Amino acid sequence: MADDGNSTFQAGQTGLIVRIPEAEPAVRAWRERLDPSARAGVPAHVTVLFPFLEESRIDPLVHAGLAEVLGSHQAFDLRFERCGRLPEVSYLVPEPAAPLIRLTEAIAERWPEAPPYGGRFAEIVPHLTIAQGQQDAVLDEIESDLGDGLPLTSRVSSVELMVHDGTKWRVRASFALADPAPRPRHRP
Question: Where are the alpha helices (DSSP H) in the chain?
Fold first, then answer.
């Protein structure tokens, strides 16, 4: 979840993320210094949808809808092998990106009043933000430092609903993805 530098997080804002705990050892120090969402309590993650609905709109029907939409998608593995850049932003590139894009599209289709990134960008680019608002020299240093910690992999089996309480982001709910466990074999 990004704070674009032009605004601050607001009480009642919500977002949906997939937590990537395997990335924490590699990115924590950089994120705590250079990513406002980390300082506001958001763990290493890939955003599924931000902003989502205002907290006042999150009722049992929305919870049920999120459980239904997200539960219809299979859990999947992500691999992070390299860094990517947007202007003044460094991030880890999740591969494959397609399952993340499908999650974002499915939620945005169900709640069209909550387009990804408020509708500011035409393309969905899944990413794990490391630093924002930095010059190229700082981004070069980050990417050099992270080289030894890559690749890393993570299993995505749930999506978390985060809510900003005016001070910090907090997990409000977690929604499981479908478990693609192999079916037991029947013996003749």
Answer: 24-34, 36-39, 60-71, 98-110, 136-146
d(CA 185, CA 13): 46
List strands edge to edge, sheet with 128-132. Answer: 128-132, 89-95, 76-86, 152-156
Straight-line distance from the first to the last Cα atom of the chain, in angstroms, rounded to the nearest whole number = 52
Flag whether pLDDT at 70 surpasses 80. yes
- Taking the C-alpha atoms of residue 99 and residue 88, their distance in angstroms, rounded to an integer, is 26
Beta strands in the chain (DSSP E): 14-19, 45-49, 76-86, 89-95, 128-132, 152-156, 158-164, 169-176
Say what the pTM is.
0.91
The pLDDT tens digits for 101-160 are 999 999 999 999 999 999 998 899 999 999 999 999 999 999 999 988 899 999 999 999
Joined together, the tokens standing for residue 65 give 């809808």
Cα distance between residue 186 and residue 181, in whole Å: 15
Report the C-alpha gap between 23 and 42 in whole angstroms. 13
